[in-house]
Amino acid sequence: MKTRVVLFSLVAALAIGFASCSYTSKTMKSPNNHVEFEKADFEFSGQLVGEGVQTRVLGIDWAHLFASEDAAIIDANAFGIPIIGSLPLKTSQSFAIYDLMSKNPGYDVVFYPQYETKTTGIPLLFQKSHTKVTARLAKIK
Fold first, then answer.
1. Are 110 and 84 in contact (CB under 8 A)?
2. Which DSSP helix (H) or strand (E) runs through 45?
3. Would you state the pLDDT for residue 73?
4. Rounded alpha-carbon distances, angstroms, from residue 112 to 82, 109, 117, 126
5. How far apart are CA 63 and CA 57, in angstroms?
6. What does the alpha-carbon distance between residue 127 and residue 129 come to, in Å, rounded to a whole number?
7. What number of other Cβ atoms are within 10 A of residue 104's Cβ?
8. How far apart are alpha carbons 97 and 50 in whole angstroms?
9. Are the C-beta atoms of residues 129 and 92 closer than 8 Å to each other?
10. How close are the terminal C-alpha atoms of the chain, in Å?
């Protein structure tokens, strides 16, 4: 009886071992893209200003729920607005960067934006954030 139990256990263990999941993956190296710029490679603007407003009711921005106009900074390799310096941390700051770039078409890079945010209201019930961004924009020569 003991040999049957041992034999059955061994067969069950082998069956489970052969029926286990397998994972196969393939990877490809991505090239190392690195471009160095000098100050002389850019044509700078003066200080420019953009503004962004975000209103949240019950913690939700209803005005931008389905249609958003912001400067999405997702990844260095993703499509977005290149910003040198401090990245926008709040959504109203992204709206301000978007407004800055919309009012000044033809520029390629935002250099060292400075944010001034004023928030009023009661958190989670009604909150309004007004952000003013000041930055220099640049065109690549």
1. yes
2. strand 42-57
3. 47
4. 11, 10, 16, 31
5. 10
6. 7
7. 15
8. 6
9. yes
10. 86
Q: CB-hemisphere CA count at 13 Å for 11?
A: 6
Place of tokens 């009023």: 120
Give which of 60, 52, 36 is closest to 102, Cα–Cα. Answer: 52
The structure tokens listed for 47 are 């200080």
Spatial distance between the Cα atoms of 29 and 38, rounded to a whole number of angstroms: 29
Confidence of residue 76 (pLDDT cuts 50, 70, 90): very low
| Cβ proximity of 44 and 136 under 8 Å | yes
Length of the chain: 141
Asked if 53 and 130 touch (Cβ cutoff 8 Å), the reply is: yes
Q: Given strand 109-122, what is the order of strands in its sheet?
A: 42-57, 126-140, 109-122, 83-84
For residue 125, pLDDT over 60 is answered with yes
Residue 14: pLDDT band (50, 70, 90) is: confident
CA distance 17 to 137: 61
Contact indicator for 69, 95 with CB cutoff of 8 Å: yes
> Residue 30 gets which letter from DSSP?
P
128 forms beta bridges with 55, 120
What's the predicted TM-score (pTM) here?
A: 0.63
